[in-house]
């Protein structure tokens, strides 16, 4: 006769082998964030920039099949369940797309652009006059 410990272990192993355990853990996390509505109410309103950034991250997560992580991001950040239209995101970011770039998340194109745009050792100037210097280290 199996002990409770052996039964728990067998159930855990079965759920892991079916890929269900990870899904259940992610779903529990999402539900916990959803249940903690008190914390969500204390979040500041989602700015336009944060909405765009969060949507870029969500598009990336869904593309890479990190759907459970995306559901936690949605619950924790207060993103609307409905995704923003990709064309809207591209227009907001002033990104031109071709057929091949439309098959991957916009975030890939943005990263690729900055990685391949000449001298990456200087400052990157952001809208509003802020500038960010790359961290010092062996990559320079």
Report on the structure:
With 140 residues, this protein is mainly α. The chain has one domain. The protein has helices spanning 4-17, 20-35, 37-42, 48-63, 67-77, 86-92, 106-115, and strands spanning 124-125, 131-132. The chain has a two-stranded antiparallel sheet. A hairpin with a 5-residue loop joins strand 1 and strand 2 (131-132). The longest helix has 16 residues, at 20-35. 6% of the residues are buried.
Task: Please tell me the total number of domains.
Answer: 1
The overall pLDDT average reads 77
- Helical element count? 7
Number of strands: 2
> What is the helix fraction of residues, given as a range?
55-70%
Overall form: flat
Short account of what is shown:
The chain has 140 residues and is mostly helical.
């Amino acid at each position: 006769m199996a002990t409770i410990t052996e039964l728990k272990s067998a159930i855990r192993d079965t759920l892991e082998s079916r890929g269900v355990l990870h899904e259940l853990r992610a779903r529990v996390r999402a539900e916990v964030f959803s249940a903690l509505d008190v914390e969500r109410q204390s979040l500041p309103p989602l700015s336009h920039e944060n909405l765009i950034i969060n949507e870029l991250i969500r598009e990336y997560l869904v593309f890479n099949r990190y759907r459970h992580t995306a559901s936690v991001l949605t619950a924790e950040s207060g993103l609307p369940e409905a995704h923003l239209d990709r064309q809207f995101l591209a227009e907001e970011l002033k990104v031109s797309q071709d057929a091949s770039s439309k098959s991957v998340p916009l975030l890939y194109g943005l990263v690729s652009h900055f990685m391949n745009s000449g001298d990456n050792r200087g400052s990157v100037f952001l809208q509003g006059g802020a500038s960010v210097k790359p961290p010092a280290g062996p990559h320079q």
